[in-house]
Structure formats: C-alpha cells, structure tokens
Amino acid sequence: MFVWNGLYPMSLDKATVASIATLARLRVPEDRLEPMVADLNAILGFVEQLNQVDTDGVEPLASVTGHSLPQREDAVTDGGYPDRVTANAPDGGNGFYAVPKVVE
Amino acid sequence: MAGILDLDLVAARDALRAREISSTELTSAYLSRIEATADLNAYITVTADKAQAMAKASDERLAKGEGGGLEGLPIAVKDLFCTEGVLTTAASHILDGFKPTYESTVTGNLWSAGAVMLGKTNLDEFAMGSSSATSYYGPPVNPWRGAQDSETRLVPGGSSGGSAAAVSGWAALAATGTDTGGSIRQPASLTGIVGMKPSYGRCSRWGIVAFASSLDQAGPMTRTVHDAAVMLSAMAGHDPKDSTSAAEPLPDLEATLDSGVKGLRIGVPAEYRVDGMPTEISEIWAKGIAWLKDAGAEIIDISLPHTQYALATYYIIAPAEASSNLARYDGVRYGLRVDGGSLDEMYANTRGEGFGAEVQRRVLIGTYVLSAGYYDAYYRKAQRVRTLIRRDFDEAFGKVDAILTPTAPSDAFAIGANEDDPVKMYLNDVFTVPASLAGLPGLSVPAGLSARGLPLGLQVLGRMFDEPMVLRVGRAIEKAATFTSRPAMLEGI
Amino acid sequence: MSEPYRIQGETGAWEVVIGLEVHAQVISKSKLFSGSATTFGAGANTQVSLVDAAMPGMLPVINRECVDQAVRTGLALEAKINPVSVFDRKNYFYADLPQGYQISQYEQPIVGEGVVHLDLPDSETKEVGIERLHLEQDAGKSLHDQHPSKSYIDLNRSGVALMEIVSKPDLRSPEDTAAYIKKLRSILRYIGTCDGNMQEGSMRCDVNVSVRKPGDEYGTRCEIKNVNSIRFVQQAIEYEARRQVEVLEEGGSIKQETRLFDANRGETRSMRSKEDAHDYRYFPDPDLLPLKLDPARVEALKAALPELPDVKKARFIAEYGLSVYDASSLIEERAIADWYEALVKGGNGKRDPKIAANWTISELFGALNKAGFDLADSPVSADALGGLIDLIGDGTISGRIAKDVFAEMFETGKDAAAIVEEKGLRQVSDTGAIEAIVDAVLAENQDKVAEFRSGKDKLFGFFVGQTMKRSGGKANPGMVNELLKAKLTG
C-alpha cells in the first residue's frame, strides 16, 4: 500500500532546482527556492516507489485507445486571418508579434 | 423560484419541450441564483447577457418545435474550455485578459445542441489540484457544511471545483468538467453530485486548455445519472481536429440506462482497501456492493495488483506532459507579459509571476523527469508501469462487466487544509487515478453522507468505450441510494 | 583512385570526417500539422492557423501527403521504411517556436538506413550512408532589423514540414560533400519531395566536421549550423578542418559545440557555449498516436516513383551510347533529362543521340548559362533544336553554319528552317557551282598548287579554307574535299 513515511532522500539541491528553473524559464525568487527544493524532493521521494515494480520486457504505454494516427488530406483549409492570431498579443504591430530584441 | 430550480436537467428539458416553462424564465432563475450564491466563488466569469440572448433564441426554436438535445438548458462551463470572445483563464494569472477567437469543440457541441451558457467556472490553476484552492481567482466554496461545524468553509474538491459547487448549489443546471486524474469524479463526490469521466477519446480535447494530454478528458457534472447521460451525448463525438479522438460511435446512452444490473458481474478490487482508509468510506463501499447484489448483480472479488503504483505513475506522467504543454505560455502571443531585459528574462519573469506555486512545482518536476539522464528512470519507467496498470484492468474486465470502488478517500476538507504538503493533497486522487491512466470511463454517484453529514460518492468503472454499462450500473446505485440530501444552503429557496 | 583529401599540418597529414544533416522542406500545399498554406513570401502571419500560433487547446493533425513525401524520399534513398514511427516533442524556448517545443521524431523515425551513390570526377563512385530521415516542423522567423529594441516574429513558416536527412560520417572532403548535396538535391527534385532551393531556405545544411590522423578513431566533432549554399558548405569545411588541426597541433582539444559560418569572413565561430543549457527533453507527443504505415501504401508509393537519376544514367549510357560524363550532365535534373529525351525521340527517331547530347550540353547549356536562364526559360525548345539537328543530318546546312543558326534561334526564338531560308544559308551541294569556285581558287593560287603537287600535302587545308570562304561557308564540305582532291591529284 502507499506508505508515505515523511522521510525523503534529499536528492535535489538548490543549485539543481535553480538550473531546472532556468531550463523551464521560471524565475523562482531566492527566498522561494528553499521551500521549492523541499517540495520537489517530497514529490520525488513519493514517486521513487516505482523502483519496486519489475518492468522488464514491458513496453511503455503509447496510447490507451490502441488507434493509429489519423491523417488528413493535403489541402489549405486554415490560416489567412492574421488579426485572429495576433488579437491577444501583448505587443506587436503590422501583423507581427514583438519580443525583446534577440541578439544572436 | 424554488420550483423551477428544483428541476433537474432531464425534467427541465421535458418541461421546456412541453412549453410548461421557457428557457428565458429558467435562465433568469439561474442568473439570479448565481448572484445569490456569489459567496461560493463558483464562477470566474458570468455571461449573463449572452445567456439571456441564447435563452431567447432557444425559446424561439422551441416555439417552432425545433431545437437540439439540450435546447434552452442553462449550464456552466469549466474555465478550461476556450469560449469565443469570452475571457478564458484556466484560473491562471498567466492568461490575463485572454479572449479566444475560437470555440472549443465540446462547448461548440453543447451550443449546437441548444444549451445556454451561464458562465465560466472556477478551478484549480490549469486544473492542477484536488481542492480548487490553487485558483488565481480565489478558492470556490463547497455549498455543503459539516453538520456540527457550519462555519468552516469546505473545498468543493478539484480541479473542477467551481463546476461542482455551481451544480451542487443550484447555480447551474449542469456543468462541464475535465478530468485528468479525478478532477470530475472527486469534486462530484465531495459535493454530492454525479460526475462522469468518459473513455479517453470520447470528447474532443480541441480547444480545452491542455494539462496532461494523454489523460485529459471532458465530461458532464450533473444532478443525476440520467442528466449525465443526456449531457455526455451532446458533448461527445468524433472530432477530426483531435488526433486522439475516438471514431467509435457513441451508443444511445439513455436507451440502456434503466436496464438494471441483474446478471451483471461487478468487480470489487482488493487493492482499493487501502491502509488508513476511514471506516465510513469502507462502509459506504460495502453499502454499494450490497445494493448491487440486492439488485441481482454478481459480486466478484478481483485484483488490480499495480493499483498502489498508480499515483506515483501519475505524478510523473502528468507533470511531464504539463511541463511541455505549458511552455506556450511565454508572454508572446497572449496573456500576461512581464517585461525583462532580454527574451529569456521576459520568459522567466512572465512565467515566474504568471504561474502559481503548484503549477510551478509541477512544471519543475515535469522538466526534471524528462531531462537528460533521468528520462528512463522516471518517464519511461512510469509509462511501463502504466502499461501494467492497463493490463490489470484488461484482465479484470475479462471477468467482470464493471468495477465498483469509492470515489475519494475522504469527504470534503476545509479550505486551506493539506496545502502545506503537496503529496498529501495528491492522495485525494488515489481511487480515481488508475482509471485515468488506463483511459477507462468512470462515474461518481452520490451514495450517502459521512459522519460529518457530508456527501460521499461511489465510483463505477467500465471497459474502454463502454459508457452505457457505467451509466447503467451508476443508475442502479443511484436508485438504491436514494440520495436526496441537499446542502443546508438550499433549504428554503 | 585520386589522391585522398588531406589537411597538411606540422605533425603530418590529417583526414577530415564530415557528416551532414540536411533539412529539406517538404513540397506540400499545407503544413505538417495544420491546414495553413506553405507558399513562400506571404504577408506577416497570413499563413498562420490557431494551431501554428500555439493557441491554448490547439492540437496537431498530420498531413497525409507529408508522410507520403517522406516515404517517397526514403524509397529513393534505398532506405528502410519503418512500419511504425513516433512523433516526439523537442522542448526548448525560442521566440519563433510558439509551442515551446518542436514536433519531431527522435527514437523512432519514419525512415531508417539508406544510401546515396556519388559520381565523382574521373568516373570514381562512392557510397554515402544515410543514417535516418525524419519528419519535423519548421520554426517561424524572427526579424531583428525592424525596430531598435524589439524583434518581430512572423510564424508563416511555423509548422511547415521538413525532412531532416542525416548522413553517416562517410564524407571525406569538401568536394565529396558538394557532390553529396547535389546528388541528394537531384534525387529530391526528381521525386518532387523538395524543390532544393537553398537560397529561399527550402534546403539547409548542418555540417558536422571532425579531423583525425588517417586510421585513428573519430575525433570530436563540431556542428556548423544552417549553411545555405554548396559553396559555403565547402568553405566552412575547409576553414573548420584547418582550425581543428591547428587547435590539436597546438596541444589543445576540440570542444563539441555548435558553430556558425560567417560567409563574409569565410570562417566559423562558436555560438557561445549556450549548449550546456540545451536539454531538449524529448518525449512522445501525447497529442499524436504512433504513425503506422500499411505495407500496401508503401508499395504503391514505390510503384509510382519516377525513374531515379542513377537508373536513368545507366539507361542513357546503354540506350543512347553516351559517355558517363554526358549522361551525368543530362540526368542531373529531371527536366533536362526529359528535354533531352524529347529531343532524341523527335524527328522520327533518326536523330543521332550523341549529336543531340553534344548540342544540348555544349551549345544549349552554354547559351543558357551565358544568358543566366534556366532550361524552363530557354527560347529554343527541344523541337526547335531537333529541327536544327535534322537540317545538319540531311545536308541542308553544315555544322559550322548550324552554330550561327543556333545563335540566331536563341536570340529570336525563330525556328531553324526559317532562319536558313531567310538568310540563304542553305548548303551548296550543286557540283557545278562548287566546281566553279574550286577552279577559281586554284587559278588564283597557281604557286601553291605547284607547291602542293611537289609534296607539300599540308596545303590541302588551305585550299579547303579558301573554297569555303569564297562560298560564304555554304559549300558542302564533303563535296569540296572530293573535288579538290580530284583536281589537285588528278
């Protein structure tokens, strides 16, 4: 049965969580980092029980319906409405979206 | 007024068709009720003008003897469905001001069937939660109060908590929900209503803000099983715009609803008798088993050996998919933007400010379990276990026609409880998550009250695409349970 | 065998190992996962659907034709077509990537191992292994020069289907690599799966370069991103290989990284070490199901493939008796090969295929090149050139005159017969007329006649030249020869 004893291996440290946050483009303020580390470790500790399951030779589930991918005909049926796709944009003009300048 | 609100969906449908009431009248009653129950915080947006216009149009159609399956019936929509020209928030700050220029397939189906839109209901942010307390718009409140403690405000469950509160508090005749790990069934159980998650693929996901794509399913939240059958019939259907949508035709759900359970084999899985389960949960389950047995069903003990790993599996797969699904909220094309010196800073600021704590936790966990070096240990491992969980069900359904379990491990808890510990909150989904992982249809039916006088539901699970069976068994429980209790707030309206 | 390509360093000769990832834009009316159009150069965000803009709740639905195109390409590369393939999400943030992930194929691509046969100079051939081909979405476009502090995003390209064709590290020189790209492009154009236009970006190359001492293990490679012409690919390889040799010979080591080719300076440079931050977190896209290909569908696509360049070349050599060189130049583009075959097969099959090949390659290609025209713009059609060749064949004009006629045809678009008539260029084959000219030439050059007769054979050419000149080039050269021979030696 799912037994959670409240003890978790501290597998993630602050630096790791900070780098995951960078990868996920999430600004986590310094004072929120510590509790986040604890929360994430609690969750990882919880899911660790999967190691007890023998999955040798078991294929990962690809789809619950067992259907194959439907394919549509090649025809232009969409697009042509720049106003609709830019209607909610926080910044832009002349049909474009605008972002802070990207320097490559 | 109580008279008209007292009608359930099917009764109101029949009254409208018989021209005993008008949709305008019915809709106005619900709009007033929404105002009167504003404290429930069930709605994020009320679309009163739209509702009245739709009701008027429905009345015109009804007058001509026309109209669809839900003609003139006022319903609420979980604010996870994109609705054209109507603010759609997913209860997140990051979708500030977002008005879709399109209508989700499911809500489109509802409007085509003649339903009237009351508004958009509250939920956990991006449907991530079991209490609806992670909403940026504040928590919705369960219309029910404890018998001995009428002061403490309770959660309506989650994530479809606003829909559950609205239906339970008669602030909507019915509502749509979405269920990823139990988000329709658990709130239904906690608010004393019927909630159904259909088979994965039954309802199109097109236009529903995605949480975990391989699990998300829309479904009805209603007062009765019959209402659920009627509403699901309008919501479901193959949609070529959703590659995972099922082509299987939906059978006539009303036709077999009252066929009874005589001769049916009902499975009772040993693994759902979890340690530390409150006695009242075991008791209501035992009652359910007895009701079905009395109605002529054969009760069969079954085993679903990988049940205990379902939650852990779910809490890898769902955040992984979510971390990717939520990458599009980047401040470029819609919603909130918090400026920054560079593109990456703008992203991080927008997402840091726009996402609440639980969403951030899940995005981070999801990012981590997919990252190089951890993918096999977490994500792939979880998908393998998911195969085993599905196999358990496939085997069980070789022996039984439906499975009966409790819906949730407890009755409604206080707003603010369980928030200190994310994992504790996750345990609410222990009974609902396995069927979500397997893609199977599940239904929660109110079965009785807890010692605190709060509703408890029972869950019926069925084979893939066997919604008629699930509804039929659910209807049998409903009949036997004769659950007529109402939240105290409904007294005297 | 020609000499292998080597970089001469201070410590000896280095071998260069090259592998290519070619991104080829699939020819299709609509995008890979949405119904918006794919045409080049449309107004900003006019070819963008809600799906392409990654609006909340939008879902991908795959384009059957794009799948067929990938299968056709796989078949043309003699590759394994995988009966089941999977679409994955490649997760990263960028302004022109609205979903925050690219739908691609990672562990299970649609096409597996194949091969491309290269024809190198000196009739050498070489096989280049194909590692895989997969389908993926293109990203949008960022415009950086429109505003001082902002970049503008146009998503018209977002979601257009690309085939990423990955070669094995089988290439060993810039020339091999150029030959590989040309051959690949030729194949793609033959089967109509990509237009191969590198300028418009419908074909882009990422070049992996490493160096090693011959016989050693592979060295660490650097990837040069998005090189957009064959010439630049060659320059980039040369520069990068030399750079790596220098680093290694100075005792340094090569860091695996992504580099950028600066065409203005002809050098590659590191795209900073942002690489560390790249962790694409591939996982199967849960919005899509595994793609299953019915063997019958693959068979049908195979049966409908046109004749491919290698087969066509062999046939041209066997059927028309062409040299390898001529056959290779004629088959490089399907349109040229078709043009040539139309030319040979016209005129009741009497046209000499070799003469037709010579005219096509030397005269027509020469003129087209000079004018900067494509074959499609050629003012001289296959029929018209055939008419000219037929006039040579039946003795109406000489080969020499024909060149002038061709020039006129190319300039005016008139047909050969009309030009010959108009300008009176018909060859003179009247014995009497030619004899009169010959007699006049001999009479005017008595001294040379005497020299010839005393044994100075070389002067025969002089008499021919004089006769032709006096006839205005129109005298039948064979008859001139015969008459002169008879009169001088008779």
Architecture of chain B, according to CATH? Alpha-Beta Complex
The tally of beta strands of chain B, per DSSP, is: 11
Low-confidence segments of chain B: none
SS content category of chain B: alpha/beta
Task: Give the strand order of the largest sheet of chain B, numbering strands 1, 2, ... along the chain.
Answer: 4-6-5-10-11-9-7-8
CATH superfamily of the domain at 8-50 in chain A: Glu-tRNAGln amidotransferase C subunit, N-terminal domain
Helix content of chain A: 25-40%
The residue-averaged pLDDT of chain B reads 96
Architecture per CATH nomenclature, i.e. the level-2 architecture of the domain at 8-50 in chain A: Orthogonal Bundle
The gyration radius over C-alpha positions of chain A equals 23 Å
Write a concise keyword list for the protein shown above:
heterotrimer; A: 104 residues; alpha+beta; Histone, subunit A; 3 helices; disordered N terminus; C: 490 residues; Arc Repressor Mutant, subunit A; nine-stranded mixed sheet; three-stranded antiparallel sheet; 17 strands; elongated
What this model shows, in words?
The complex is a heterotrimer of chains A (104), B (493) and C (490). Chain A is of the alpha+beta class. Chain A has a domain at 8-50: Glu-tRNAGln amidotransferase C subunit, N-terminal domain (Histone, subunit A, Orthogonal Bundle), CATH 1.10.20. Helix content of chain A is 32%, strand content 9%. Chain A contains three helices and three strands; from the N terminus they run ααβαββ. Chain A has a two-stranded antiparallel ribbon. With 493 residues, chain B is α/β, with parallel strands linked by helices. In chain B, α9 links the parallel β7 (265-269) and β8 (298-302). In chain B, α3 (23-36) runs antiparallel to α4 and α8 packs antiparallel against α16 (467-481). The longest helix of chain B has 21 residues, at 376-396. The mean pLDDT of chain B is 96. In chain C, a hairpin with a 4-residue loop joins β14 and β15. Chain C is elongated and about 95 Å long. At the A-B interface, α1, α2, α3 and β3 of A face α10, α11, α12, α13 and α14 of B.
Chain-wise SSE layout:
The complex is a heterotrimer of chains A (104), B (493) and C (490).
Chain A lengths: L13 H10 L6 H18 L23 E2 L9 H5 L5 E2 L2 E5 L4
Antiparallel strand pairs in A: 2-3
Chain B lengths: L1 H4 L3 H9 L5 H14 L6 E4 L1 H16 L10 E5 L26 H8 L3 E6 L39 H8 L6 E5 L5 H7 L2 E4 L19 E6 L2 H11 L29 E5 L9 H16 L3 E5 L7 H16 L17 H12 L2 H14 L5 H21 L5 E5 L15 H5 L6 H6 L3 E8 L5 E8 L4 H15 L12
Parallel strand pairs in B: 2-3, 7-8, 7-9
Antiparallel strand pairs in B: 1-3, 4-6, 5-6, 5-10, 9-11, 10-11
Helix pairs in contact in B: 3-4, 6-7, 8-16, 10-12, 10-13
Chain C lengths: L6 E3 L2 E14 L36 E2 H13 L7 E2 L2 E4 L9 E4 L9 E7 L3 E14 L3 E3 L6 E5 L6 E7 L6 H18 L11 E10 L9 E6 L2 H20 L8 E5 L4 E4 L12 E2 L6 E2 L2 H9 L5 H12 L3 H8 L2 H12 L7 H19 L10 H12 L5 H14 L3 H8 L7 H14 L1 H8 L5 H12 L6 H13 L1
Parallel strand pairs in C: 13-14
Antiparallel strand pairs in C: 1-2, 2-11, 2-12, 4-17, 5-6, 5-16, 7-8, 8-11, 9-10, 12-13, 14-15
